[in-house]
Amino acid sequence: MLTDQQIQRFNKGSMIDSISITELMELCMDPNSGITIDGLRKMEYPNIDELEEMCILQLPLCGTDYKEFLIDDMKKNPSKYGREKMFDIISNNRLTRDELVENYKILSDRAYEHIRQYPHLRDEQRELPISHMENPRGKDGYLDVILWGLPGSGVTCFLSGLLGSAALLGFNFDPREPGGGGRLAMELRNYSRCSMLPPHDLKNYIQVIDAYIKDARGSHNISLIEMSGEGLRNFALMDKHANLEDLGIGASTLLSNNNKKVICFIIEPFNENTIAWSDSGKPIKVKQSDVIQSVLATLQTNLHIMKRIEHIHFILTKSDILGENINCNEIPDILIQQGYMDCFQYTKSVCEKYGINSQIGFNVRPYPFSLGRFMPGDVYEYDETDSLKILQLLLTPPVQPCVYGPPPPGCLLGKLINLFKS
User: Fold this and answer.
1) CATH assignment of 143-421, given 3.30.870.10, 3.40.50.300, 3.40.50.2300, 3.40.50.11270?
2) pTM here?
3) In 123, 310, 341, 390, which residue has its Cα 20 to 30 A from 295's Cα atom?
């Protein structure tokens, strides 16, 4: 047991190196020690993941205090608990089915059984049928919906969510269309309808899925175009951006067609920096906001393209992985705190210059997107609500500050909106 003076020194970080990880585990599991996993994480203790694993392994031997912490942490941070970790907790009865499903509602019954059946994500995932067309193109006269995001930003999950809502809102796709993405569309639709996460694939090629939406005004033909995530990451590492083809194989021809366009930048709002690799093999941090500005700067080298862009939207993915930790309407605030204000202002200036987003005063809007209720173990319950809102957004430009309701008084999003209106 540490003295009050030792706890004070420990909380300042001066004693961490002198205490073994086993001693730390014992302190974390002692409710009277004043030392917690959360506290160590805030102090950036380097072996925090190993320490947490050790605490979980002791669950059957400990009292209720750490178990209650673990249950609360699962609710607040479900993405911390991957498939293998949850399978270990379930298979070794570290938390019982009643605790996980009935008492604390951490998992649904289906999710609990799914984790038991598939201990590893790879057990349930199939390789995606990626198109390798070097000259991808949507059908002439369609609305091109161009999805841009760095690897890991959630573009494929976003697309899976949209396709999972096929047959709703009059939305559907024809897998036989010449865009080349029909088989991919069917697979992604199945993933969302089964509430499973699609695998991460290295997409060096642009994927095109031809679809349509029918409403009271008639049928609207759209091409859902997933730009190459790997191509975008390579583009981010270039010293100069002058060639549209640098944005991916076949990008120049695809972007230069006569179709009207909607650009959606897919952003993971909780991880501004993504890791890329230089030619020398050194890791480099790439900021999503910088990549967006570089893409817009490159597109402006072609006036033909800019005249055909009708709308630019920001889609904020992974709002479903936060559990009870944050409200979706707070996500735009996080973006601003990470320095996205310059990116938003620059995008608005581009919109003003080329008449983009004219129906909403050339402003840009961030739209949180969720696949549904995300649970520990990389499982979720698909909910098409946000997918349907996005599909409506593609056809009907917003006239309100945010389709997710007005921002709370005094929040940064409200200040951002007021800035855009000024």
Assistant:
1) 3.40.50.300
2) 0.77
3) 390
